[in-house]
Amino acid sequence: MLSQLTDAFARKFYYLRLSITDVCNFRCTYCLPEGYQPSGAPTKRFLSLDEIRRVSRAFAALGTEKVRLTGGEPSLRRDFVEILAAIRENPSIKTLAVTTNGYRLARDVAVWRDAGLTALNVSVDSLDARQFHAITGQDKFHQVMAGIDAAFDCGFAKVKVNTVLMRDVNDHQLNAFLHWIKDRPIQLRFIELMETGEGRALFARHHLPGTVIRDKLLAQGWQLAPRGRSDGPAQVFRHDDYQGEIGLIMPYEKDFCLSCNRLRVSAVGNLHLCLFGEQGIPLRDLLAEDSQMDDLAQRIAGGLSLKKQTHFLHDGNSGITQNLSFIGG
Ligand code: SAM
Ligand code: SF4
């Protein structure tokens, strides 16, 4: 199906990142160093299963082919399996992915796959168990690693791993990470640390430009692969000696936003046109009844005309984004 979601800069949007909760059980230093803090607003409820079903149906009708569930930690939702099944009710959504900290994988990944999950990103910031604990606040390195093994065992041919490399924290592990993917079909995605409202001091101390990693990869014989439509802004590198591959996500790189292919819906049902944008367009009033579907699709498509050409991170402007758990990274 042709995407009906096209913006003023001729970018087409096939990909929805849907946050289903802000809550997280980890305390990553660059995201929620104090852990999840409830907002205190008793009225703040996350999208219900039925609301998620409707939002995914509207996006599917507009040509969306891929949905990624994120958060917070999406697998904390008790109805996570039902959410997967509800999204897979849309035959045009071919890829259903989740980004997870991995703590539930070993136990549940096979069930998720049976419910319709087709792709998996697991966040792993260190291959050293003690450092993993220090970065995430959770002593769960071995549990997460067992989870990745379980994903392969239950039939995922490839797993993506997200790693935020930080200067003077875990950047010395680059070669250990490369060694790890030598014989494993893992796409290791190095995400450049992004500045958020709450993370300014950490950013100033530990930001490592993605270009530094790219130069090291090129020097070791890695080669940039041609971009696939679903790659989005990632630059993918391959090497004949490695089964795994590298994806570099460099939001500070010139032209990063040219290949933007994703829209976001927050856990309270606001459409965000950019990870670092402003308030978001409320959709929730149109999620109560199936009969509102046309109005919902119209609001989503109409909202897209407001999408800006680029973010303003270069100017130290991270919009309303205080941390990435709020809108799903
Ligand atoms: N809890 C899940 C997880 O950690 O995979 C999903 C949500 S998390 C916000 C999604 C991704 O955003 C993770 O891979 C995390 O490493 C990344 N992330 C969070 N804060 C970031 C920041 N300030 N800069 C770069 N990446 C960040
Ligand atoms: Fe939780 Fe993911 Fe943020 Fe870590 S990056 S605190 S796991 S939401």
Automatic annotation (TrEMBL):
Residues that, per the record, bind S-adenosyl-L-methionine: Y30, G72, S123, M194
Catalytic activities: GTP + AH2 + S-adenosyl-L-methionine = (8S)-3',8-cyclo-7,8-dihydroguanosine 5'-triphosphate + 5'-deoxyadenosine + L-methionine + A + H(+)
Annotated residues for binding of [4Fe-4S] cluster 2: C257, C260, C274
Keyword flag Iron-sulfur: yes
Enzyme Commission (EC) number: 4.1.99.22
Gene3D superfamilies, alphabetized: Aldolase class I
SUPFAM superfamilies: Radical SAM enzymes
Entry keyword annotation includes Repressor: no
Pathway annotation: Cofactor biosynthesis; molybdopterin biosynthesis
Alphabetized UniProt keyword annotations: 4Fe-4S, GTP-binding, Iron, Iron-sulfur, Lyase, Metal-binding, Molybdenum cofactor biosynthesis, Nucleotide-binding, S-adenosyl-L-methionine
Membrane-spanning segments: none
GO molecular function, one term: GTP 3',8'-cyclase activity
Known cofactor(s): [4Fe-4S] cluster
Main enzyme class: lyase
Cofactor binding, per record: Binds 2 [4Fe-4S] clusters. Binds 1 [4Fe-4S] cluster coordinated with 3 cysteines and an exchangeable S-adenosyl-L-methionine and 1 [4Fe-4S] cluster coordinated with 3 cysteines and the GTP-derived substrate.
Subunit structure: Monomer and homodimer.
Family the UniProt entry places it in: Belongs to the radical SAM superfamily. MoaA family.
Function recorded in the entry: Catalyzes the cyclization of GTP to (8S)-3',8-cyclo-7,8-dihydroguanosine 5'-triphosphate.
PANTHER family reported in the protein's UniProt record: GTP 3',8-CYCLASE, MOLYBDOPTERIN COFACTOR SYNTHESIS PROTEIN A
Protein name (record): GTP 3',8-cyclase
Phylogenetic placement of the source organism: Bacteria, Pseudomonadati, Pseudomonadota, Gammaproteobacteria, Enterobacterales
